[in-house]
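Quick log. Single chain, no ligands specified.
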Amino acid sequence: MFAHPINEPGLMSSLWFSGIPCCSVYAPVHICVKDIYEPYKSGAAWEITLDLLENYGHDALPFHLNRIENVIINENDKIENISYKLLQNGKNTTVIDIITFSDIMLQCHAFKMEQIMLNLSQLIGNGNGPISESTGDIDLDSVINTIDTMWSTDYITSLQNMKHAVIELDALDGIKCEILDIMRTAAWYKICEAESIVGQKDPDLKEAKRIYQEGVDEIDNEHFTNAAEKFLKAFEVADCLVTGEPYQWQEEEQIWTMQSYLIISTVIILVVILCAIVRFRKKNERFKE
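-> predicted structure:
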């Protein structure tokens, strides 16, 4: 499907594509982007849809993929609206960057949702059957409901749902890790979008990067719930930078941030003073000579 807008068609026109329509998620690629998500270049995105078709057939998946497509459409609309405002100010390069990051994020999450559904089909293990079964101690109806309801309206709401899904699906390592990686990549690409707009020196951007790295560290330490919380927070901070809205820091976070900046400022001042003292002493020694 093609979208050809009246305004700025040379930058904002887009193609919405998928593998096999009944077994995959539609995602956008705009004409101006610098790159697309690797599996769509390598053919891996096509291959996974063939596996999904074999496991689910033609009719079972659309209901389970509609929610993520709605979120992708809403996120794309948001980024396009922001881009049009930036274009009015002549920031064409910035628009190309943020649309590139946004498109890759949406393509990435379309692909990862398909991976989740493939993992689920392997868990069921009956191919071409209904995706509502009971297997051992795992309540698949509950698992399917958790996965179906992760995606809701917008990204922040969806990531909040995913944070709970990480807890509820703790026993399913493969699916849990895919959900966590959706959260991680959402935070990272949103940080990249924000950096394209506000620059590297923005204090809130630095905080978002710090929180994101804490999330990565929590995964390394296998503290998955903590990681989910960090990625959600990093996304929220970066998303506010993209939309131009102030992020509402909690009081303790504001205190921590002010203290950290105070410490850094104090260290810088002390270094400057020490350098001045050293220079002053050297001048005195030369004067005495």
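The chain has eleven helices and three strands.
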